[in-house]
Amino acid sequence: MFYIAAQVGKTALNRMTSRGTSTAFARRARKETMPVKKMLIALIAGSLFAVLVTACSVKEASPVVTPTVHMGALGFIQNSITLRKGEMLDLVDDSISPHQIENGSWVNGVAKPAIEPGTPRVDQVFNGYDSAQIGPFSAAGTFHFYCVIHEMMNLTVHVS
Rounded CA gap, 132 and 90, in Å? Predict the structure, then answer.
């Protein structure tokens, strides 16, 4: 009988030990996987945050502003403009009146066609309510343009 009691006790002890070992092993395994899970969650959250910050910080490209001169029915709204080397110039016809812009100027009521050195060649017809670009102005200097149709319609472009 002692032998049977010893066997029963041994079996019970084995069960307790194996349960204890299993429980301890499970606890240890959970403790080891918790930091991995936390790191994985932190990595995912950090990645999402980085994507969010990057997406929200995209700035719109600033628009390129081309210098502009407007024309009325009988003349340029402004008679002169200053540009930097390499810039283009927008001419905008704000009226129904046609214009033909060329290199040169009106002097004492007489049209004087002239192309100054370094100026872009211009022979631009406007039919009313339209626009065109002239240039680029690649050289520094003072350049003159006029409307062949409208006497005394002069534009001076200063390029620095």
Answer: 6
